[in-house]
Specification:
By secondary structure, this protein is an alpha/beta fold. Helix content is about 40%, strand content about 25%. The chain is built from eleven helices and twelve strands. The strands form two sheets. Strands 1, 2, 3, 4, 5, 6, 7, 8, 9 and 12 form a ten-stranded mixed beta sheet that branches. β10 and β11 form a beta hairpin. The model is unreliable at about 1-20 (pLDDT under 50).
Length: about 270
């Protein structure tokens, strides 16, 4: 997995995209890509400022590591604790709440583990542990993966010890992980936006939702120009001002699927 990550970083470092007058590199999560948000949102900025945004979609943990190496110009992730540590450690200049949605658990329509009857996500995860129904985890240090792992930790279960029995890690993005879950008639933990926009749902549906532990906050981080000199750039400034402006926030709020908003804007400076 580490080799795959460094291969991705080397690939993008060898592409001559930098914070110049015509392009910016956005380090973002696979969920913002797979949900279609970036494809919808970024052309508005590009047209207004005549600047091309090149998206580097990684799990949040890998995106933060890439940002430490200055392998991007803009950082959009969804793991608040890691993001705040990133700023505290001096790699980021500031962090802003940008938008949120939630996580859901999807599975086969017939729900063999009968999780649809539960009220708390910790009980759902305990049920997976006590059954032979396959659960697919991203296992890629993404924000989604960290949220899932936090729930396992709360019930003192290390799911990796059941690898190959009822637990499998895909090591891939959200779209690919959903595909695997559908192919194996299994359950998985996903952000709502990616699931709603997913085309090949097969015989799967949302079986559990609504627990406060499944809240999914996205953050926007300004890189520290003392660590990354290219972070001090007028085009980067323009992007942050734009996406946090009334225009940017309104566009995020208007993005929907069949009338359901996929992300709720909630811009707020956060240093905690």
């Amino acid at each position: 997995m580490k080799f795959k990550f460094f291969l991705i970083i080397i690939l993008f470092c060898n592409i001559s995209f930098s914070a110049d007058n015509t392009s910016l590199r956005l380090l973002s999560t696979t969920s913002t890509r797979d949900s279609g948000l970036l494809e919808y949102l970024l052309p508005n900025f590009e047209k207004k400022y005549n600047i091309r945004i090149h998206v580097i979609a990684l799990g949040t943990g890998h995106a933060l590591e890439a940002a430490k190496n200055c392998d991007g110009d803009i950082l959009l992730t969804h793991a608040p604790k890691l993001e705040k540590k990133f700023v505290k450690d001096g790699y980021g200049q500031s962090r802003y709440n940008l938008m949120y949605n939630d996580f859901v658990i999807i599975g086969p329509y017939n729900d063999p583990a009968n999780i649809e009857s539960y009220d708390k996500v910790i009980d759902v995860f305990q049920k997976f542990n006590n059954s032979n129904n396959l659960f697919i985890s991203r296992g890629d240090s993404s924000g989604t993966d960290l949220s899932e792992k936090n729930i396992w930790k709360m019930i003192n279960i290390e799911p990796k010890q059941y690898s190959g029995i009822w637990y499998l890690e895909s090591g891939q993005g959200m779209g690919s992980t959903i595909n695997i879950a559908i192919g194996k008639n299994a359950y998985t933990y996903t952000d709502r936006a990616t699931w709603l926009k997913f085309k090949n749902k097969g015989n799967h549906k949302i079986l559990f939702e609504g627990d406060p532990l499944m809240f999914n906050q996205y953050g926007l981080i300004r890189l520290n120009p003392r660590k990354c000199p290219n972070a001090k750039n007028v085009n980067i400034d323009n992007f942050y001002k734009w996406i946090l402006s009334t225009e940017g926030q309104s566009l995020i709020g208007m993005y929907n699927y069949k009338g359901d908003r996929l992300f709720i804007p909630n811009y707020q400076t956060s240093y905690d």
